[in-house]
Amino acid sequence: MIGWIIFGIVVVLILLWVGIYNGLVQARMRTQESWSQIDVQLKRRNDLIPNLVETVKGSAKFEQGTLEKVVSLRNAITQTPTSDHQKTMALSDQLTNGLKSIFAVAEAYPDLKASNQYNKLMEELSNTENKIAYSRQLFNTTTANYNTKLQSFPTNLIAKLHSFKPSEFLETPAEEREVVKVSFNDQGL
Amino acid sequence: MLFEQIAKNKRKTIVLFVGFFLFMGIVGAALGYYLLSAWIPGVVIALITGIVYAGYMFSQSTDVVMSMNHAQEITNSDQAPDLWHIVEDMALVANVPMPRVFIIDDPSPNAFATGNDPEHAAVAATTGILSVLTREELEGVMAHEMTHVRNYDIRLQTIAVAMTSAIAMLANFGTHFWYFGGNRRSNDKEGNIVAMVASILVLVLAPVAATMVQLAISRNREFLADAGAVELTRNPQGLIQALNKISNSEPMSDENVSPESAALYISNPLQTKKLTNLFSTHPPMTERIAALKRM
């Protein structure tokens, strides 16, 4: 009788163990999947940048080094191993700012603004920038879920035994963290 | 929180199904008894009809709901770049697959989501909402819809719409029976009974339909979706401004909206005076905006 009880307890413990372990693996995989979402968008942007540089080079005057800086940042991102999340995102933020300055300069050139190709590129790039921001947010959400699991009892015991490592949050660039200010006077209609 | 909401929605969907079949059975029994003097064939016929209808609605719900609301599908980003990209972004951050996208040609700003589950979901937006809202505001609205998708609100609401329309159809049928019976009343005793049954059916059916919608679409759902939208966009202002604009505009044209699917929309698309009590499925806009401002 006692033997059966012990057997039952052992079976329950093993099932719990397997369940918790699988939960951890799944949560970790979600963080990896959401990183690959970011990666897809970074690659897409990298593909668009040479086109953009070609398009604006001839038709607008930029300060010395503006375009070169963007190109070198792009190349730095392609050379950074994707496993280095923090460095990749730091470079990506700089690249975002570089692109913003290109668009700001291009504003002053009506020919460029009237060009179909330029407008299409600009639309695709801003779409990609949005997706980078949103996939970064998704990554932080999945990371928060995974890290909470790692720290809560009894999951933390099993995580330690199988040496699960916490996932690192991606910092949001400073200007995005500012609260959006909206005036209530422009409510149209 | 999210999982509780999903579980609750799945439970309610089952309750809705059971209620629907019970109801069909009772109607079938009553009709069978009075028309054929035997209730069993009536029940069998009614249940078979019910199963066929439910199966059809379950597999075709998106297309049926979309055509009920005169929505046209768009299949690539060139047809409405802003809408398409915003839906893509919101699906990305909500971690659900990209839904199908539809546009309703109506100047009043409004939007809704439908489908069986996140893998078979669809969102619709009016041409009005595309022209009136800024990108930030439209993001808020689409995030609200994506929360309905992620929560399985869409399944529950779509089934509720399907069953309400079935009952409305039966009620219509009953009304016609009543007229039909009324004509022959003087010289036909049978007609008298049929007319009586039919009129009772009509009396019973309409409130049942309304109650079912009420059951499925608790007002809480919209508050939850608003909160979920803010969780996705991190920007309550966008949704607040969108709701302000939507609530200050004209209702949609009656030709485009079917009253049964009014509950799906982010804001009640019908004239507020009509049907307000029967179908009051949306909490007052001022309360929703106040809740968003507290976030």
What characteristics describe this protein?
heterodimer; A: 189 residues; mainly alpha; de novo design (two linked rop proteins); 7 helices; 76% helix; 0% strand; disordered C terminus; B: 295 residues; alpha+beta; Zincin-like; 2 domains; four-stranded mixed β-sheet; 4 strands; 67% helix; elongated; membrane (chain B); zinc ion binding (chain B)
Quickly describe the structure.
The complex is a heterodimer of chains A (189) and B (295). Chain A is mostly helical.
Question: Any overview of this molecule?
Answer:
Chain A: It is found in: Membrane. Chain A: This is LemA family protein. Chain A is built from 7 helices and no strands. Chain A has helices spanning 2-57, 66-79, 85-106, 110-114, 116-151, 155-161, 174-177. In chain A, helix 1 packs antiparallel against helix 2, helix 1 (2-57) runs antiparallel to helix 5 (116-151) and helix 2 runs antiparallel to helix 3. Chain B folds into 2 domains: 2-66 and 154-207, no CATH class; 70-151 and 216-293, Zincin-like (2-Layer Sandwich). Chain B is built from 10 helices and 4 strands, in the order H-H-E-H-E-E-E-H-H-H-H-H-H-H. A 4-stranded mixed β-sheet of chain B has the order 1-2-4-3, sandwiched between helices. In chain B, strand 3 and strand 4 form a beta hairpin. Chain B is elongated.
SSE layout and pairing:
The complex is a heterodimer of chains A (189) and B (295).
Chain A: H1 2-57, H2 66-79, H3 85-106, H4 110-114, H5 116-151, H6 155-161, H7 174-177
Chain B: H1 2-36, H2 39-68, E1 71-74, H3 81-94, E2 100-104, E3 111-115, E4 121-126, H4 127-132, H5 135-151, H6 153-184, H7 189-216, H8 220-233, H9 236-247, H10 285-293
Helix pairs in contact in B: 1-2, 1-6, 1-7, 2-6, 3-5, 5-8, 5-9, 6-7, 9-10
Measured between the Cα atoms of the first and last residue of chain B, the distance is: 17 Å
Question: How many separate helices of chain B?
Answer: 10
Q: At the first level of CATH, what is the class of the largest domain in chain B?
A: Alpha Beta
CA-based gyration radius of chain B:
21 Å
Largest interface, with counts of residues having CB < 8 Å to the other chain, equals: A-B, 16 and 18 residues
What is the helix/strand order of chain B? HHEHEEEHHHHHHH
